[in-house]
Design goal:
10-stranded antiparallel β-sheet, mainly beta, Beta-galactosidase, Chain A, domain 5, single chain
């Protein structure tokens, strides 16, 4: 990407801006949006003290990124629609306050409130002992800070705004991985592109675990909402999820104490490998679309957590290189890509939003086109090779 570059944080150069802001007055107008901006600030107070937030506004869509938390996305807005969900964890939590080993390896949940967080990189899925090593829920990357964050503005064409962050997940006598995350928005567009590159900095071949936990709440999620995914096969993760498999695509109201469900998909893609999953509200007046490159992210999970609003009423549309099972199980199924020393793994996905029936219909029609003549197979029970419950 050509254009102007601004460094917000760079450990090597000793650069860090507690406050940063650019817009048309600094960079000139972008053809696609009269008003646009990139702002960075560092939060103060409580468990958020020291968390850096970088907010991109392209004139139509706004996203708040969290470099301190693995370049996750805290929340956002598309026109008048809020993007995100209401977690019991109300504010971004500084990683220094998250003990991943708390609650028998479930401590990751103590900081979980983002619209999108990465699960990985060395491992994800549930906690446990893997070859003598205690691994924790969903890995380390979401609780590691970026050591370099830059903004790039390209004023050619409609204009493009890009934020890139670099996060290292390394350890002595273990995996040495680097994430370079790029978030790209065209001025005045409803689409956001994500490009991740994971580098193996170490001297040994290293398996990669990576899943994108994209968490969506109201107003897209409500009683009567529906997820629409093109797929060849679908299977519930466990016996409890199997009880709801006939209603896997629809959502009920917030219900106190209702256990979570998860469904695994073998998605259908177009000739270039792109697939699309959509969550739309009951009236089909609002939709959240996730486009993902299945050559890089071949697995797809829908997580349904329709507990009460206070407990976190949310659903996840989750593309990944693997399914969110225990690492040893995924390794046995040969779903973990192996990165040779110096190798890079690239993954791409995008979000798209709609706030009217016509645009929602366009999104849904894309999914129907992908489904085409492929007859979807719904398994009523967990399947062998898909989850440990299927092998039991």
């Amino acid at each position: 990407m050509t254009g102007q570059e601004f460094v917000i944080t760079c450990f090597e150069s000793g650069i860090h801006h507690e406050r940063f802001q650019i817009g048309p007055s600094e960079c000139g107008p972008l053809a696609g949006a009269e008003h646009w901006s990139v702002q960075a600030t560092t939060l103060c107070g409580g468990e958020s003290h020291g968390v850096q937030v970088v907010t991109i506004n392209n004139g139509m869509t706004e996203l708040s990124l969290l470099p301190t938390r693995g370049m996750g996305v805290w929340k956002g807005r598309y026109r008048d629609l809020p993007l995100g969900w209401q977690s019991p964890v109300k504010r971004p939590v500084h990683p220094s306050l998250v003990d991943l080993h708390d609650r028998n390896g479930l401590g990751w949940l103590n900081g979980f409130n983002e619209l999108m967080c990465r699960c990985g990189l060395a491992f994800n899925g549930p906690p446990g002992q893997d070859e003598g090593t205690a691994i924790t829920l969903h890995g380390r990357i979401a609780n590691l800070p970026a050591h370099r964050v830059v903004v790039r503005i390209d004023s050619t064409g409609p204009g493009t705004i890009e934020v890139q962050g670099v996060v290292d997940e390394t350890t002595m006598f273990g995996p040495a991985l680097r994430l370079r995350s790029t978030v790209r928005m065209r001025a005045g567009s409803s689409r956001v592109d994500f490009i991740d590159e994971v580098f193996n900095l170490g001297g040994n071949e290293t398996p990669l675990s990576l899943l994108y936990h994209i968490n969506i709440g109201q107003p897209f999620l409500e009683e009567g909402s529906e997820n629409i995914v093109p797929y060849r096969e679908l299977a519930p993760r466990d016996p409890h999820s199997a009880k709801g498999v006939t209603k896997h695509a629809v959502y009920g109201p917030p219900t106190t104490g209702l256990p979570e469900e998860a469904f695994y998909y073998c998605p259908v893609a177009d000739g270039q490998g792109w697939s699309t999953a959509v969550l739309k509200n009951k009236a089909a007046t609002a939709a959240f679309g996730v486009h993902f490159q299945t050559k890089q992210l071949p697995c797809f999970t829908v997580w349904k957590n329709t507990q009460s609003l206070a407990e976190g009423y949310v659903t996840g549309l989750e593309p990944g290189v693997n399914l969110p099972n225990f690492r040893a199980y995924e390794r046995k199924q040969d779903r973990l890509p192996k990165l040779a020393p110096g190798a890079t793994y690239r993954s791409e996905f995008a979000w798209e939003f709609a706030d009217n029936t016509a645009d929602v219909a366009t999104m849904v029609d894309r999914v129907k086109t992908l489904q085409g003549t492929v007859t979807p197979v719904v398994h009523n029970a967990p399947q062998p090779g898909w989850s440990p419950s299927g092998d039991a």
